[in-house]
Model the fold of this input.
Amino acid sequence: MGASDLEVWQAAASGDHAAFHVLVDRHGPHLFRVALSLSSGRADAEDICQETFAAAFLGLKSFDGRASVRTWLTSILMRRAAKTWKKDRHARRAISLDRRADDDVERENPGGALADRLKVDAATGAADQRMDVLEVIRTLPPEFRAAIVLREIEGLSYQEIADVLGVPRGTVESRLYRGRAELRRKLTGY
Amino acid sequence: MSECNFQLLLGAYHDRELDAAVDRRIARHVGECFSCATALRGMRELSARITTAAAMELEADAAVIAGMHRAVDRAARDESAAVDRPLLRMAGLLSALAASVLIISGVWLLDSRGDARLANGAGAAAPRGGDVTAITPDWERVAITLRAQPRPGIGDDSPFAPRYAEAIHWMLDGLIPAGGRSEGKPWAEPKSF
Done:
């Protein structure tokens, strides 16, 4: 059995750069899953992950060891993703203007516009259906999206999600409840 | 479908985040409540769908992981370069300081030369090489100025001239022995000025 994350982190913090690469191998794949769920594309997700590991490497000594290494890395990733989200806000505003017409239709028929769009995609096969679930997650408000991704994809506990997002545990519970309700509503009829 | 109050806890029940006692209570309730059982089934289906999609679509390939390793190597290089950065910063600071001193000195020098030209009436129209006072030091310039412009009132016809003359004689008398003084007057009447 290999060394624990904490032991590897201690080695990296004391100057063993190779040890940090072990952490990259261990946590890179799941961090990439989170980044890809939160960002609009693969390239963005790759950038976010690279920035996350670079920031973690430079801030090795700032980790106090109270949370798990995985939680620490995930919290860095969430901050990076939020920055990317803010940076792209103007672009998204422009897109949202185009989507406003769809939203108006959807307001009259909740879940209808998106469900119709997804139905068209569904005709192309099961692989598209899987992708569409992720697409719907990406349309959720950021706070619901983050909670759902961390729980459903990352499998973090409520307390770990609270640590990562810097919010109380009850808030995590509430966001998950509302996020799931929103997700079901958007997937209705799909 | 009417919502049951227990539905608020269903999410935590589904995520196995409740303590054992509450968990058992919810389990019993779900067995009796059609609404909660349906909601729980929906949650489980949704989770399974997300998990499947994530496993299929969100896998990081070797190139992605290699990119992360490269990012760490770059960060390591940047960090080691940052060690030399304080020295470079200090050198830059000293260079900036030296440049500032040079600029201020240059400006001061040009300014003092301009003053000298104005004081001697040279100005911009002074003949090149003709006016020596334009480049003389301050003390010498003062001396030249005094000689060229004697104090007003002495040697002219102004009403103050006799008073200056009196004062000069009074001072001179102080230096001459008593016998040499003029009779009846503390000082001699000036003959002419």
